[in-house]
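Entry 14. Ran structure prediction on the chain below.
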Amino acid sequence: MGTNFYLETYLHRFTFYHYLVELVNIPESSNIVKIKDIKASVLQLEDEKVNENNFIIQGIIELEISYVIANVVKFYNTRVNFNFLKGLKQCYGEKDVCFPENCKLLIKASSRAIKNSLLPANQVEVKIAIVFQGCFKVFQDCSSIWKCADIEVNCVPAFESHKKEDLSVGNIAEFTQAFNIAQKELITFFVKNKGDSLVYVQLEISPNGVDWIADAYEVEIPPGQGEALVLATFLKYTRLKYYSLNSSLIDIYLQTQG
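Output, structure tokens:
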């Protein structure tokens, strides 16, 4: 009696950013003096295949807005819905991309408020960045190799980690070394601000290690906090730009898999 075997694989990893601008009305009778902080968290995420080349992503983001009125810090929570159509071509930059057979699309997301403006009548305009990471989970029929069923094969992607500790940061932008990521599928920087001043960081990419452009947005890291940064666009090389308006101290990690 024959036995059916199926190989579960994960193919075509991708990362992309989506930006939202939301106008929030804060129900206060007095005028807000300033916005102290805004946190954005993805509460719900769903995806649905539309056709062989496109899918819909929808979900809910919760905003926690802290603001100041008469020297008192207050909080207001609200939720933002998002819904948009995404093409596989936009994810991979290829002309003819379609869903593989017998596949399931896996997507995860994180979000952050990257800019806000306090408007009259206690309205706040918030710009939100959502980073999506995904891949295809594919089931392949391996019935023809059933005789090898007693052999267990584990394929673990190569992992690399680079670390720079206690880097001094000043008001002149500096950069890490250039990293060749041509053979990597997952690339993440992590920066810990160990000093007393805000630190600003931004990913950069290059096709040749000479000509550089910014990837996505600049991230602000408060003292004592850390931040993970994921590439949105693929080129052969990447590096991290960092600076502070005063002076600070940071640790930088780069971890890759693939």
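The first helix runs from residue 88 to 92. Will compare against last week's run tomorrow.
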